[in-house]
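Possible regression after last week's pipeline update?

I re-ran a chain I had predicted before the update to compare outputs. Posting the input and the new output here so someone can diff against the archived version. Not blocking, just want to make sure nothing changed silently.
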Amino acid sequence: MPQLVVPIFPLPDITFFPGTVLPLHVFEARYRAMLADAVGRDRRLCVVQLRPGYEPDYAAKPAVYDVAGAGEIVAATRLTTGRYDIALRGDMRIRILRELPSDTLYRLVRAESLDDIPPSMDVSPVLDRIRASCRGLLEALGRPANLLDAALASDLPPGTVADRIASAVLPSAVIRQELLETLDVTRRLERVAQALDELVRDLKGPRG
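New output (post-update):
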């Protein structure tokens, strides 16, 4: 698989999926330096979730998950404070192979891009189930019925539907990381459908 060298932005409870746009406010000095370098170079960046128990090592090099999202900085505004507001457009999953020696304040890794394993069967039934669960979720939350239409569009690849719904809806960082690591699109869709069913059930509460 193709390899790349990319700076990493480790964050707690954040999952960066391909096909999504992630807004971030960047305030730490090391990551402001990373942004300045990336904007002046190729605008590439990886967002990776910190592993549980990262707190004691946060200021150094805390452990991160092996699978992360990478993409392009599509908007970057440097504020008068030196902080940044940015938007990242995700375009690939990556597996971190190793961390590279660096004299920068931030961390660099060598990684390989990961490709989806496309469905080998008709996934229309599970897509219909996801759409129905999303309707139920929006109804339970009192939100507009068309709020997720763009993420559920019929012309999107099935894997992108799974990624966008996971990013927009699922609150569990553990489940989102599991889905990021699931390359088999059929399995990913089924796991999203299961998680949505559980979420809707929890929101509606016991009946009777």
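Follow-up from reviewer: compared with the archived run. The two ends are 54 Å apart (CA to CA). Marking as no regression found.
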